Input
Amino acid sequence: MPSIIGLPEMLKNLNKKNKDLFNRFFSVQRSTGRLVLPESMKKWAENTFGHQNHVEEQVIVKILDKLVFEEALYNELRAKRPIQAKENEDFEKIIKQSAGGPFSKPLQLTPEDMFGRIKGKHCVTASNVAKYDGMHGLVVFKKHNPLDFNQEDLYDYFDTALKWFEKAHKTNEKAIYPFLLWNCLWRSGASIIHGHIQMVLGEGFHYGDVEKENKVRLEYHKKYKSDYFKDFFRIHKQIGLGFEEEGQQIFMNIVPREDKEVTIIAKKLDRNCVRAIYKIAKCLTDDFGVVSFNLGVVFPPLKKMQNWKDFPVIVRIVDRGKLSSKTTDIGGMEIYDMGNVISTDPYKVFEKIKKSFA
Output
């Protein structure tokens, strides 16, 4: 199986056109970190990593996205670690014990938006009590456990969210910038365990990261007369980290925001896109033991504007780590340097993601 540590060698095998395209986006640097283990630690190193040499000489690959100036750092030592299954903590017991909160009776215990509620087959909307934008709503799942979902559930959740955007826009025609967020369980930042999705619809300008991506996209097209997102996907496909499925471009970004990040680029959030989301989410939860994740969906503005023409729908899902962990998965490097320390080799994740679509 290929490894992110072997990326420099893989790049040598690309033809000139694809190599130039890769270098347009990324810079790759490989270095070696060395240390000396005391005798008392050598047995532990062998048991944990297979050999003490893996600890005493650690290969590190740094990848910089030169267009958005984000960076990922991969340590060979981390890549050699076995992929963890579900943690031993009985988190399902904690989830069950939390049942009975306000989201269990949303019609009685949650506020509604000024335009009322939208009822789906498996969910209902509510207005967020503590808003972070003027138009901020929720899709509250009928099922309490957010990890208990099937494909039909997701069709209904996302369809209801799209209807919320439409109705919110009719209420306030100036609100045209949609963003959807699913924080699954407390490691992802969810303050309420009960399954729910958040929707915000902004005025004036899109949310900051989306504005940045669109600015880079327009500058890229002006300079190279080519589509930024198509080229970004193409280079990931060339290095064995991307494939297409029913019109969706699915890939592992080599400069991800967090561990196990999978990206979908689509024309719209239709049933094909939701089906891809379902397969990816189930692969992460079933095959990799992911129990807490963030899923974000970026949309173009609801109003047609020339400088947003052809901007796609972008879906990202990331693992947020063990629910029992007492340390955060985001530290100083991520906050101050946009240098994301990644624990899992994307090739290991991609292999199973692709198989889940077979």
Residues 4-82+206-355 form a domain with the HIT family, subunit A fold (CATH 3.30.428.10). The chain has two domains: 4-82+206-355, 91-203. The chain is about 35% helix and 25% strand. The chain has a mean pLDDT of 91.
